[in-house]
Amino acid sequence: MRIRLAILFLALTALPARTEEAREFTLSAPPEIVASGLLDYILPRFALKTGRRARLVEGAADARLGPAGPGAAPVMARGQALYALDLAGDNDAAHRFADWLGSEVGRNTLASFAPTDGSPFSAPPEVVQEAPAPVEGDAALGREVAHEHCARCHRVAPGLTAMTLGSTPSFAALKTLSDWADRFAAFYALNPHPAFLRVEGISPPFDPARPPPIVPVEITAAEAAALRAYVAGIPAADLGADIQSR
User: Fold this and answer.
1) ∠ Cα 23 19 99 (to 5°)
2) How far is it, in rounded angstroms, from Cα 228 to Cα 136?
3) pTM score, whole prediction
């Protein structure tokens, strides 16, 4: 019996200790933020909500609050100044603080703080995405060009069952590429099109030493622009995952 208890004791003590979740993190902030009293206001509220506490330090820290540089996602604003939170390492409490600042509760807490001096704090302004520039061209004409010339290799419309080359992507699949508009703007210069297709006034003549392998196609610049306008109206295919451009 004693031998069994001894073996059990050794087995239990050999088990790795469970990693405790961090409940404290270090935080550094610019002097103007510290002097404003903002941290004295929001940190106790964060601790009350999450049970995690911040310890202010100077220099290296688990989380560093500072002016938002180019490309950084700001977490708060004060007037025209934007501040970002830079996380170093995987301290769970620091990550919770970042999540809390971005939550509705965190944003409301920032807005409710009234500094005795200077501008109030607020959530960062939302970035407004600019609408893409409209694609110019006659889409109806582009549809005719696609069915007459492109359908021999591509599936040019959703649901089209005509025979195509299996190695060529459909127009709907090409629409999933982030640079689809650029591709269709210069498709005539991308292989294999120059071997058999010319755009009037733009493409060079065919090389007499290398004649087109199929019946050549010649279209106008207006028809090329119309084709791009037609593709702009085709919904992108649902491929189930991002298409990989090679």
Assistant:
1) 40
2) 8
3) 0.47
> Does the structural domain 21-122 have CATH classification 3.10.150.10?
no
What's the Cα-to-Cα distance from 19 to each of 15, 89, 97, 238, rounded to whole Å? Answer: 12, 16, 20, 42
Which value, in Å, is the radius of gyration of the alpha carbons in the chain? 31
What are the Cα distances from residue 101, in Å, to 29, 66, 84, 112? 15, 14, 11, 13
72: phi then psi, degrees, rounded to nearest 5: -80, 145
Quick check: 238 and 158 in contact, CB under 8 A? no
Helix (H, G, I), strand (E, B) or coil at 134: coil
Answer for the pair 141, 226: CB distance below 8 angstroms, yes or no. Answer: yes
Task: List beta partners, residue 217.
Answer: 197
Q: Quick one: 34 exposed, middle or buried, by C-beta within 10 A (0-12, 13-18, 19+)?
A: middle
186-217: pLDDT as tens digits: 888 888 898 899 999 888 998 888 888 888 99
